[in-house]
Every structure is written in structure tokens, then in C-alpha cells.
Amino acid sequence: MKVTKKVNRDNLISNISVLKNIAKVSKIYAVVKANAYGIGENEVMTALETTDVQYAVADLDEAMRIQKLLRSENRGKEILIVAGVLTDKESTRKAYENGFILGVSSLRELKELNTHVLGFNLERKINGRIRVHIAVDTGMNRLGFDSRDLVKFKEEMKEAISLGCIDIDGIYSHIAPVNHGEIMDQYNRFKDAVQVFEDVCDENLV
């Protein structure tokens, strides 16, 4: 039995407009990992090219492919790799050199990334920074800092970013699809996490 998935482009763009009204100044990232969940990354990106959404993917290979698909007028779009910091040094180097944003899921990853970028900067005699977004686990129990443990990591996080190799300019979570009450609990945990990281970075996060 053949199953067909249909997506209305007008509705997709309308959904983005609704989200923008809710998000206000925060950026919106269209998650196009796994070939846009089987819909077709090229088709989805073509539909969204007139919007100001950014893109999120699962890994470095997807990020490189999405970068190639971007038309010249959209080359400035941001690409976020959400599935945690890349484990090997050369993959991290490639992400750094291509200007990708990396999702960071733990203090260990934050420190490891600092070490890699510091090494790249010394090799090239520059003072570059890599942009990161913080992943927070509010209840999905996959990737991310445990929202309940963030306060005790504050000083160590401040120390990690004081080295000057990392810019933390975003934060995100994957809300588990449960009942309304639990969703609101996760949302409140996320808001608390945002406050912790804004205290660490001494600035507002997108």
C-alpha cells in the first residue's frame, strides 16, 4: 500500500507567519533534518525562501548539503546543528570554518569545544569565536542540559565562556508531546533555563 504525504506550501508559509507573531524578536529555525522529515528539504526550502527563517539540521553532512542548496541571495541564512557538539576535531573545524552554529548539550561539550576552537585560533593566529546554542532537556530525556541542574553549573559555564572562544547566543528545547499540564511545566522549566543562561552570558538570548 502506497502512502502519500502532501504539504500545502501556502499553509507552511502561513504557519511561519503565525510563529513569528508569537516569537516576536526571537529567530525561527525550520528543522529540515532527515530530508525535512521525508517531505523533501529542497522543496521545503524553496517554499520558505521568501521568509526570514533560519535552518536546523541533525549533523555536519546535512549542514553542508543545506548550505549548498541555499540560493545566492540566501547565503546569509544560519544553519544550526542541533544534535550536540561534533565529537572529532576535524568535523568541529569544518563546522567552525563554515560558520555553522553548534548545539551544546552538556558542560563537557562546552569545555571540549573551547579547547578545539582555541587550538584552531592558535594555528591560524586569529581570535575567532564559534557560535553555539544551548540545548536544554525539559522533559524529552534526549539531548540537553538537565533544566533542574543548571544553577549549580553557572560558575563553571561562566569560566568556560570567559576564554573568549565561544559565543552563546541561543537556547532551545524539544518539548515532549504529553498532556497540556505537563507541556506547561516544560515551558516553565525552559523559561527558568533561559534566565540562568542570560545570567551566565549577561545578555538576552534569541
What oligomeric state best describes the polypeptide chains here?
single chain
Continuous helix count: 8
Order of helices and strands: HEHHEHEHEHEEHEH
- Beta-strand portion reads 15-25%
Given the helix and strand composition, which structural class is it?
alpha/beta
Stretches where pLDDT is under 50 for at least 5 consecutive residues are none
Mean pLDDT: 87
Termini separation: 44 Å
Helix content: 40-55%
Biggest sheet overview: 7 strands, parallel
Radius of gyration: 18 Å
- How many distinct beta strands? 7
Shape: globular
Task: Give a written overview of the molecule.
This protein has 206 residues and is an alpha/beta fold. It has helices at residues 9-23, 33-37, 41-48, 60-69, 89-97, 107-124, 154-161, 180-201, and strands at residues 29-31, 54-57, 79-81, 101-104, 130-137, 145-146, 166-173. Strands 1, 2, 3, 4, 5, 6 and 7 form a seven-stranded parallel beta sheet that branches. The longest helix is centred in the C-terminal third of the chain and has 22 residues, at 180-201. It is globular and about 50 Å long.
